[in-house]
Amino acid sequence: MNRTAERTRRTKETDITLRLNLDGTGKARISTGIGFFDHMLEGFSRHGFFDLECTVQGDLQVDGHHTVEDTGIVLGQAIAEAVGDKRGICRYGSAILPMDDALILCAVDLCGRPYLNFDCCFPVERVGALETELVREFFYAVSYSAGMNLHLKKLDGLNAHHLIEAMFKAFARALEAAVRPDSRIEGVLSTKGSL
After folding, report:
1. Residue 78: closest CA among 45, 47, 43
2. Where do the DSSP E strands lie in 143-194?
3. What are the start-end ranges of the E strands in 65-185?
4. Fewer CB under 10 Å: which end of the chain, C or N?
5. Average pLDDT of the chain, as a whole number
6. Whole-model pTM above 0.85?
7. pLDDT tens digits, 141-183
8. DSSP symbol at 189
9. Buried/exposed code over 87-112 (b: 16+ C-beta within 10 A; e: otherwise)
């Protein structure tokens, strides 16, 4: 099984090259120009056991919005391509992940129908060079580009760094569970017979 994808996106605002291997070991090579965002994508890769290479040249002289949102678009497209027709995978995944004071719930359904439920407010406007309002924009872009139902909910926490990092790690664990093959599943996991 070769569950890999390579995607590019070139606009007047961003130039992105991304490679994803769903069956990797958690190796990452990330360069987006936003240090904290790099750290989050590295955590996503490591904790989901996904190999991820991502290079972004964005219009950071404007702000981080296009860089973060477009990276989410491309990652979502890569997830959809790598997972393919979804035959034999678990489809659903969830995680409740603690990080110090933060406790995050994440649930994923690779149903083909995009939806984001994001329930978290951050106590500060930025962590490092990442504007915290862009966290929702990233996950919105991923969910819609991948065609996934994605729920992220803060159960507890005060520190924005911990909350965001727990979100990326919880998403990684939930997605890893959703894309995991299960030999008991014939075709796709749906009573309709298709997703």
Report:
1. 45
2. 149-156
3. 92-99, 102-109, 115-119, 126-127, 130-131, 149-156
4. N
5. 96
6. yes
7. 999 999 999 999 999 999 999 999 999 999 999 999 999 998 8
8. S
9. ebbbbebebebebeebbbbbbbbbbb
